[in-house]
Structures are given as structure tokens and as C-alpha cells.
Amino acid sequence: MCPENVAVESELPWERASRRPARRVPHLVLAWSLDEPHRLGEAVPVSRPSSLGRGEAEAGDELPRAAPRRMRPGSTTASPPFANARIARRHLLVDPVGFSRIRVRALARTPVRINGRMVDDGTAEVGDVVELHNAAVFIVVERPAEYPPLRSAPDTVFPFGAADPFGIVGESEAAWALRDVLAFAAGTDRHALLFGESGVGKELAARTIHGLSARRSRPLVARNAATLPESLVDAELFGNARSYPNAGMPERPGLLGEADASTLFLDEIGELPESSQVHLLRALDQGGEYQRLGDATPRRSSFRLVGATNRSFEALKHDFLARFTHRIVVPGLLERREDVPLVLAELLRRIAQGNPGVVTRFFERRGGEVAEPRLAPDLLVRLLRHPFTHHARELDRLLWLAIGSAEGDYIGVTEAVEAELGDSASSFVAAAHIGREELARALREHGRNPTQIARVLGLKNRYVLHRLLKKHGLGIGTPEGDP
Asked: N or C, which end of the chain is more exposed by having fewer CB within 10 Å?
């Protein structure tokens, strides 16, 4: 029983936050538009039965108009109604089904497709693609009704849908969550470790941490650890005294010396030999003490280490791993599919800067200036459903394949692109229908061979398998498939 003179709070701040999670609703995010390509990334929340169409709602409309908007943390801006002449005034009826599905009913004569299948009345789930024939393409995502403000807001401003000052592209919830955690890490000046598959943008994340930190006035020192010859790793990291180990050898500061008062980015840090990880331990502690090869006295370097790896935690020695205060997972395109059109647009913008022949053939011109690329919707529809394994790097390769094999002046799905995407499409469908029991049985029967397990299950490769294992909470570590 509480004393009478002690005030009792019915709900403390942390309890209130945990009991009131952000309300989440399905959204239709614009991925392609023939008439309004500048609106990619705009989101239409579907929190109640609504109509989607061109222009404002009309007086006789029974349902409210689903309104597009530009979502950013702490700020949501209403966009003008769609003005796309290919969208009917009342094109769709959309109705939420729980938090992650949308019922779609066609009102116009223009064909409506969900994942390529024509529908008059269908249900689209998170990750599904809704296509208004030759008018617009949307992808279904689940988001909070409003993005919360950033906890560690970076002092950066950039146009909606464009790359931020450090090169990260995306308006998805995952992209903004990444920017938030990178900004927090940047402000603490502690060592950070970035995890993610090849091509997700770990180097961009490292440059973001450096660019937002107090060390940004000094250049980032970057090196791929996999390129360091094992016999010379310590010399590369710590440097050497003059004439050591051979007479006439020049003095070298090493990467730690070069990164004094700056940031050292070691990509593929999991490739460092364990002996070199041990040698780095003292330098990673406060004070940054290390010793050049051939030197009698220790030195100090005020450096911050940002490492990146696509391996698991177990690839690093536990005491080396313990030196990294921040462990940040960089999401791939599968975790933020709605950003695929924006990343594609950024890749095309870079292509336009250095390839005048491509610009002449595939880009519109307005007022003498290069405008948007001529991009066919079939390519976007396929890419939105593609199970990327190398993410932005793979997207760039597929884009160049589409450009190089195009017969007309539009970038779309050619035979060469179809040959690449065909297998992935069947693998995507196969993965979607594999249940936990079937997956666990394959693990028991084929042990620790992920390539063989993927082949038996009809998956494209072991990367698709690993994502499926993660989805079902399984692992290859035991015969039972337990994580």
C-alpha cells in the first residue's frame, strides 16, 4: 500500500510508449507513371474504403478520394491529385483488409493486374504489384500512418525521391530508419560494424557515418581488407619504420596513422586473419595505442573504425567483435522494395551524365534539357518482384542489360533480360509456397549443404534459401534446422 503523501502515476512514459504502438496501414506506393514520373515514391494510404482516380473527388462520389502524399519522418505533405490522363476519374475502389492487404476493385475499362494477373476484384498483399495498364504501377507496402520524427536527425535537406548528400536513395520506412541509426552512430564517435549482403550499400553507410561525424573535415581512409596480403596485413595496418624489414625501405604510417583524427573504413573486415584481429584489439581501445613494425616505442592514433562484412557475427573473434559498439544491419532491396524505382531512377541519372549515346536514344528532352528516361512498365513490374541477391549492384547490371539489348527507344524486358529474370521469377514463386515443415525436412535430409538444399527446393541460389530460413526462423546449424 502506498503512503498517502506519495503521488501515484497511472502510466509512466516508457509504459505509455510500449502500449501505444504506431498505427500501421497498407499503402499503395507509386512505382511507375507514364505522365507523372516525377511523383515516384508518393504513397496512397488505404485506411478506409476509398476511390482512386484522376483529379479531385466529385460531388456525387459515395466514397472519399484516396489521396497521395509524400511521407518523411515527422512531416507528411499532401500531394496534388493525380493528373495522369490515362487514369480514369474513378479507376479503382480500394478497401483495407487488416494491416497488410488491400481489396482492389476495377471501375474503369482499363485492365487492372495484380502481379501480372488481370482482376476485376482481387486482394493485394504487402509486396504485391498493382498495375493500371499503361497508366501507373503501384506496390503494396505496410507503413505507420505517419513516420515518427528521427531520433538523431541529420542536418541534411534533399529533394523527395533523390539521393541524399551521402548517396543513399529511398523514402521507405527502412531507408529512413537506416539514416536515423547511422546519424546516431555518427554522433557517438564509437567503432561501428555494418552487416549486409553484397551490393546493399555498406560503403555509402560508412561514408554517411563519417560525413555526419565531427571527423568529417578529414578525408575518409578506406580499404578493402580482402585485398591485404596475409603476410603484409600488419604492415598495411600499422605501418613500418624506415629500413624495416629491409634496408632502404621507406617509412610508412599505415592505415591507422593515415586515419588519425579521421575514420578508417575496412570493407570485408571478416576477411582479416584472426591474428590481425588480435593485434588490433589494443588500438581499438580508448587511446588508440599501436606500434609500427620496427619501432621501439608505441604510437597513438585517434581514429574511428567502421567495418563492413556480409558474413555472420561468428566470422569475427568474439573479443574483436566486442570492440564495436554499434552493429548496424544495412537493409537490402527486398526489405524496401518500394525504393527500387527510386534507385533505378538514380542509376539512370548517373548513366545520363556520362553516356550521351544512351541519352540520345532513351531519354526525353524538354526545353533543350535531358528529362526522364523512356522506361517501359513491364521492366518495373518484374524488378519489383525480383529476389535480388546483389541488390543495387545487381539492379545496375540488369539495367545495363536492358539498355544494351533494347531494339527500340524504350528500356524494357528484352529476351536477354527475360532470360535473367525468368529463373528468378520461378524461384520467387517456389519460395513463396515453401512452408516451414518442408524446409525443415530438406535441412534434415541434406545437412549443411545450402547449395544442394536450394537446388532440391527449386530455389535460384543459396541466398534465396537463407532469406527463406530467416523468414521461418530456421538455420543450417543443426540437423533439425533449428536456429
From this structure: N
